[in-house]
Amino acid sequence: MSSRKYFQWACSSFLGIILLLLLAYLTTWSLCPRILPYLTIQGEPVGGLSRGQALARLENKKDLFAEKNIHLELHGEDLDWTFSTRELGLSLDLTESVERAMDYGKGFKLQTAKELLLLLENKVHLPLMVTFGPEDSSRTIQEIGQSLVRDPENARLEVGTGDQVEIIPAVWGRKLDEESLLNKLDFLTYQDIHEEKTVSVETVSVRPEITTDDMEGWQITGKIASTTTSFNALNKPRTHNIQLASEKIHQYLLPPHKVFSFNQVVGPRSKEAGYQEAMIIMENEFEPGLGGGVCQVSSTLYNAVLEANLPILERRRHSRVVDYVSPGLDATVAYGYIDFQFINNTEGYLFFHALVGNGTLTIKIFGCQESMPEVEIQRQVVRVLPPRVINHKDLSLAPGERATVQKGSPGYEVQVVRRIRVDGEAIMDEIISHDTYPPVPQIVNIGD
User: Fold this and answer.
1) Spatial contact of 61 and 68, defined as CB atoms under 8 Å apart
2) Residue 157 CB neighbours (<10 A)
3) How far apart are CA 432 and CA 419, in angstroms?
4) ∠ at Cα 424 (423, 426), nearest 5°?
5) To the nearest 5 percent, what fractions of the chain are helix, strand and coil?
């Protein structure tokens, strides 16, 4: 054999032996139920340990990690929080950490050789694996969210001096961006968080239901109608009821082409709603009842609606004349069966302003002044119905002596017409109502 061939044979044999030894080594360690020597997990030597021994050695790391703090801060504001990893749903996964160590440097793959070289150079320091459980952080995230939340404020209208309408701008709210925070906490599992960490908290804006831009497009430019009626402010229960019902109408916004239902807006007139007993008309007679005075609110609103040139959908007169509006201009209501309804037939919103003063109730309607025609409400008394006199014998009176038990009052047949003018010229007369109010008889007791 020539020296050249012998050299080739020797090299091949040597490489074969090396490969066989490496294969034997890899096979031995692949089957070995222990971690390779010199390997550490988060600085803790675990080389040569079995799976159970490694878990036992690392067990104390779990509680120490659970008490580590993570700082959260909201940039741009002086808001920050500090919570433990446990409170944020972060925990050590010792099982996975040990499994990674058990697999290191084992197996029949090219990467194994590189891993073994690093191990021999004492350069293998595996981290402890961290997991994130969103459900475990829910209480903490809720606490952060509550401290950050700011409710949005709708744009609103205010009526100033001279009935000028001013838009008070909306304020956008904010809330915690929970999805962003959860993603950032989950991302921490891919980092070395055994040192102190700071996580930035983000918020998202919350749109108000009514923005400034919304309200600017509602075409509420000024007052289009106003009506004032008077009442006896010394009658406290009735005054209270008028105030209570008026508050439901005050600052009410009616969208275009929507129906206003007095009963729906004001609600039931009950003790639970705060109403008191005052005089009401029941079967043509005055008697105490819950919510007495509310009909003055509906009647005042009715007159303003007539002036605002809005179509009336439902309205009923009282069974007898009332003293706060002229006959034909009243609108009685009774929750559940008698309603007052009208529709906003304009292209813009309507805004209602109800103010109770010292013995007066004023209701104003605001809308698009520019599109309003001139409105004139004409009330014609068709005829007056005189009261009849009813005489009763009264033995307690001297013969011929007379005592008036009930003062009579006349009834009326009244027609109400709404006249529309444009540039001073009448273009339409609309018959709104034709009502007949029966007279109230005079009752006289006569001695016999």
Assistant:
1) no
2) 18
3) 10
4) 105
5) 30, 35, 35
- Which of 388, 394, 399, 400 is CA-nearest to residue 443? 388
* Whole-number Å distance between alpha carbons of 151 and 329: 43
Q: What kind of architecture, by CATH, is found in domain 373-448? A: Single Sheet (2.20)
Whole-prediction pTM: 0.71
Beta-bridge mates of residue 147 = none
User: Considering the chain, what percentage of its residues have pLDDT values greater than 90?
Assistant: 48
Place of tokens 């008309």: 281
Q: How far apart are CA 59 and CA 69, in angstroms?
A: 19
> Apex CA 431: angle with CA 426 and CA 436, to 5°?
140
Question: What distance lies between CA 3 and its chain's CA centroid?
Answer: 95
Average pLDDT for residues 341-359, to the nearest whole number? 96
Domain boundaries, the chain: 1-25, 32-204, 217-370, 373-448
Which of 18, 24, 39 has its CA nearest to residue 120?
39
Give the number of other CB atoms < 10 A from CB of residue 290.
18
Phi-psi label, residue 4: left if phi above 0, alpha if psi -120 to 50, beta otherwise: alpha
Task: Quote the tokens at residue 258.
Answer: 């929507």
For residue 196, give the nearest of 83, 305, 329 by alpha carbon. Answer: 83
Q: What is the DSSP string of 385-438?
A: EPPPEEEEEETTSPTT-EEEEE--B-EEEEEEEEEEEETTEEEEEEEEEEEEEP
Q: Which pLDDT value is given to residue 25? A: 56
User: What contacts 366, CB < 8 A, 6 or more positions away?
Assistant: 157, 159, 163, 165, 220, 222, 223, 224, 350, 351, 352, 353
Residue 28: pLDDT over 80: no
